[in-house]
Amino acid sequence: MELPASGHEPVLLSEILTWLDPRSGQTFVDCTLGRAGHALAIAQRLSPSGLLIGLDADPRNLQFAADRLKTTASQPPCRTRLFHANFAELADVLEEVGLKQVDAIFADLGISTNQLFDEEYGLSFAAPMALDMRLDPRIRRSAAHLVNNLAEEELADVLYKLADERYSRRIARKIGEARRISPITTTDRLAALVREAVPVKFGPPQRIDPATRTFMALRIAVNQEVENLTGLLEEAPRFLTPGGRLAIVSFHSVEDRLVKQAFRSAEQTGLLTVLTPKPISPSSDEIAANPRSRSAKLRVAAKANGPKVRE
Ligand SMILES: C[S@@+](CC[C@H](N)C(=O)[O-])C[C@H]1O[C@@H](n2cnc3c(N)ncnc32)[C@H](O)[C@@H]1O
Questions:
Q1: How confident is the model over 202-223, as pLDDT tens digits?
Q2: Does the CB atom of residue 110 touch ligand 1 within 6 A?
Q3: Which is nearest to 22 in space by CA: 96, 81, 77?
């Protein structure tokens, strides 16, 4: 697959622009700047009188996005305030900017394509890399630490709960046996162990590598993705102006379930109105052009005008 010069193709871009409808002079938060694909398109519409507040947990992507936002246009397309921050820290960021409310909050979850293939991050089994997976250098425990130190039952729980891995126990047992011989420190060794642990199926070859789920679960655990998303979903609605929009793109069922449930319960308390009862998925054209978009799901909600009054 050919990568764009930015290292990442933004998913569902035109749908996101339609739903968020950025306008001149508004203030938007992009919680996951990445390579600034969405941010740049949003910034151009906010125009110089608008403000884009951008966050990324990864300082390297943050720097790339900052440079891209600065140099793509002859003048910055809008004012920007960019932060090396986790979106679970949104309240602190907005306090630093001195704003109580914004017109839209957007998050495009997970990792960017450049992060997947860059061995600095140790995320992929497509090539041998040191097993790490930390996006934010502030995180203490790497994937190698978890794989070599969690009890086998804890490891099986991580695989089962975060990636619905049905062979979680077998895989955890295999890892337990292997690490008694020597610590597991590389992505290729871990992937080989998972493939050995998973029973071979007869029939047509499998579309996805059996190691995919294990790697996804470990990435989620290392970067505390469930805790961070839960924090964002709890905090974000109170920072929206009336009618302001919250849009989240997720890539796996655990995340999408969290978004769906949080939106629903905020609707029940009168805080949000759900605008997408069913999530929006990429068109077949987008999936053909960018196969990594195939599991993307966009959900959008708007800040309601006030709490529901009981009859
Ligand atoms: C899918 S990419 C975003 C791509 C971006 N929308 C674009 O068009 O280039 C996700 C980005 O979010 C960052 N990230 C992941 N979890 C985060 C979190 N909890 N807080 C802040 N940034 C996070 C990653 O480092 C990565 O740069």
A1: 666 667 899 999 999 999 999 9
A2: yes
A3: 77
Tokens of 100: 């109580």
CATH of the domain spanning 140-222: 1.10.150.170
Q: Is the CB of 89 under 6 A from ligand 1?
A: no
CA 250 to the chain's CA centroid: 7
Distance (angstroms) between ligand 1 centre and the Cα of 108 equals 6
Q: List every span in the chain annotated with CATH 3.40.50.150.
A: 13-114+226-303
What confidence tens digit (pLDDT) does each residue in 159-213 have?
A: 999 999 999 999 999 999 999 999 999 999 999 999 999 987 766 666 789 999 9
Cβ neighbours, 10 Å, residue 220: 23
Closest residue CA from atom 7 of ligand 1: 37
- Left if phi > 0, otherwise alpha if psi is -120 to 50, otherwise beta: which for 234? alpha
Q: How far is CA 26 from CA 20, 44, 305, in A?
A: 11, 11, 19
User: According to CATH, where is 1.10.150.170 located in the chain?
Assistant: 140-222
Q: Is the pTM of this model over 0.90?
A: yes
DSSP three-state, residue 247:
strand
Closest to 255 measured CA to CA, from 222, 217, 292, 282? 217
Hunting for tokens 């069913």 — which residue is that? 278
Fold exhibited by the domain 13-114+226-303? Rossmann fold (3.40.50)
